[in-house]
Amino acid sequence: MNDNRHRQYVIRLLTVFDQAHQIHCLMSRRTQHITGMTLELSAVLCWIDRENGESTIYQLAANLSRTSNTITRIVDVLERRGLVERHRAQTGDRRLVYVTMTLEGESTLGSFREATFVIIEPILASIGEYELRRSLDQVIDTLSVISGH
User: What confidence tens digit (pLDDT) does each residue in 47-94 have?
Assistant: First the structure.
């Protein structure tokens, strides 16, 4: 490919990133209005849920591409809200801090997921199922190639 063609693809990719960011901001505002949860807070709860209700600060930071300090601040907020609890390992490396989701955290995560569905479902309903699946698969495949995964 020539340099001009590469530039065109870079511009299109930046447009995709910009549009994804705008959608992310819109979703964050709407879900925060409905549930009081930002996407950043909910991302931590979602990851803890994926890990069967418990994860370490380090694992959360690595999996969410955030620093340990950022995750610690997010967990501070979640803990103040009663959505997670922290505890140290009883055996092995006692420096490890585990974060466990509470029943209130599970309930809040369920409400967040339902609010997200309510916001997104009308948008998705306006797109045919085949077209939606094909488009999402292409985007995911392309982003996987770009990110090297």
Answer: 999 999 899 999 999 999 999 999 999 999 999 999 999 998 777 777
Number of domains in the chain: 1
Query: Exposed, middle or buried, 42 (CB in 10 Å: 0-12/13-18/19+)?
Result: buried
Tokens of 8: 């065109």
Residue 39 structural domain: 3-147
- CATH of residue 128: 1.10.10.10
pTM, full prediction: 0.75
